[in-house]
Amino acid sequence: MITHDVRVRPSAAQLPREHQLAWQLARVAEDPVAVTEEVTDMVINRVIDNAAVATAALVRDPVVAARAQALAHPYRPGATVLGTDPGTRASPEWAAWANGVAVRELDFHDTFLAAEYSHPGDNVPPILAVAQHLVERGELTGADLVRGIATGYEIQVDLVRAISLHRHKIDHVAHLGPSAAAGIGTLLGLGRETIFHAVGQALHTTTATRQSRKGEISTWKAYAPAFAGKVAVEAVDRAMRGQTSPTPIYEGEDGVIAWLLDGPDAAYQVALPGPGEPKLAILDTYTKEHSAEYQAQALIDLARRLGAQHPEVRDPAQVASIVIHTSHHTHHVIGSGAKDPQKYSPTASRETLDHSVPYIFAVALQDGAWHHVDSYAPERAQRPDTVELWQSVTTTEDPAWTRRYHATDPAEKAFGGRVEITLRDGRRIEGELALPDAHPAGARPFAREQYVTKFRTLADGVLGPAEVERFLDVAQRLPELSGQELGGLTVRAPAELLASVAHPEGIF
């Protein structure tokens, strides 16, 4: 890896392109280095993972609305829209939009957490949409798609390691626009100049505040990464037509760093693969076993164990308090440190509840399980004994857990916490868990078998058995797929299922 010093420069300095971060990102994307077997295997896993969580969300309102928008933009060749007949094609940027919403809706796919937060699987919908659309123009294959996805993961993870957006209340999708644009650049074999301008445009148009993840969280949470993916497709299109970007986009005195991030005196150290160095970042990412914010994953696993070992902690009449000692992020974003009363409201939206660790811990403690639908149902959230137990749960920041959250040593890295349950009779029950069971270093790490099982489980009752097997066959042959077979990387739901929900009308 080569570490790049990134800092604000005055316009008068005329910073050479080779010293600009966007140029270096384009250099990585342009590098034709081979994809390793291990990375290829993980790309397949994440394609399956994305399809799993998207399938489970096909009839949810945000996904239905986004799909309707995409289908209002038919195009040939075009790209597939999840849930529909593969022969029904939409313009690639709109397909990326609809599919991105479906993937993100349940907050159930992969994650990477460091200086910033991210869901790197959000790179897949825009890169895949472009691959499906442009296959008739050239010789694009499954191997090309794998290369593009590997780049998308690499760029996003490298930015997330180095540059914090949330500290300045900027949403994490500002790293996704550039990574998706870079991934599309790799897919298409574009030159450095073109990718450079696409990255710059994508960054410039995807900076937004984190209000989408604060207070009463709305349906826009699922749309935010889909918007970044759609913008990335459009940015690459413009760059291919010779259109340029704000330059230098990161380092300019009126640029992103100077005014949206750490300010004119800021300096970041961004490590990127050197020439000929394989793109391995996807191997450092991890998916979810449970449909909730990643910092809640280990706490769900811990709650299940504590509830099974000590059934009395499920009864609010016996519980005086539950305190979760955890990292700064968990406390301030999904814990009581956020100071959002909505996180304790029985009528809160699903999007709010999946960012409320007090709610999540209480339900997992009582049920000994977590379900992507049942655990968020209004009748579940409003159950009186749950509401009472939920109100007794608070979080507090523990510097040791914050340090472990930011640790670079895998042996120290942790996303969990320590729980103290004080009973009304004075007894105290404690437990801690550093990593979710499904984490690569957890008790039950996800491998191909678990990704396939997740897909089968979430597709049950949504897709027919033949469609489940067809998709798994195509996905697991990804590196060998011909261009024409890329259209099979979608799922087709029964027409009656899609017709069973109301389709809202808009402008299109």
Secondary-structure map:
Blueprint: E1 2-7, H1 21-30, H2 37-56, H3 61-71, E2 74-80, E3 89-90, H4 92-104, E4 112-113, E5 117-118, H5 124-134, H6 142-162, H7 176-188, H8 192-204, H9 220-240, H10 256-260, E6 267-272, H11 297-309, E7 319-326, H12 328-334, H13 350-353, H14 357-367, H15 378-381, H16 384-390, E8 393-397, H17 399-406, E9 417-423, E10 428-433, H18 448-459, H19 465-476, H20 495-499
Parallel strand pairs: 7-8
Antiparallel strand pairs: 1-6, 2-3, 4-5, 7-9, 9-10
Helix pairs in contact: 1-7, 1-8, 2-4, 2-6, 2-18, 3-4, 4-5, 4-9, 5-6, 5-7, 5-9, 6-7, 7-8, 7-9, 8-9, 11-14, 14-16
Low-confidence segments, ≥5 residues, pLDDT <50?
A: none
The domain count comes to 2
Structural class by SSE content: alpha+beta
Regarding CATH, which class of the largest domain? Mainly Alpha
Major sheet strand order? 8-7-9-10
Q: What overall geometry do the principal axes of the alpha carbons give? A: globular
Strand content: 5-15%
For the biggest sheet, the summary is: 4 strands, mixed
**What distance separates the N and C termini?**
47 Å
**Could you tell me the number of beta strands?**
10
Order of helices and strands: EHHHEEHEEHHHHHHEHEHHHHHEHEEHHH
CATH architecture call of the largest domain? Orthogonal Bundle
Helix content percent band: 40-55%
Mean pLDDT: 95
Helical segment tally? 20
Instruction: Report Rg.
Output: 22 Å
Question: And the CATH topology of the largest domain?
Answer: 2-methylcitrate dehydratase PrpD
At the fourth level of CATH, the homologous superfamily of the largest domain is 2-methylcitrate dehydratase PrpD
Pfam family, one: MmgE_PrpD_N
Protein name: MmgE/PrpD family protein
Family: Belongs to the PrpD family.
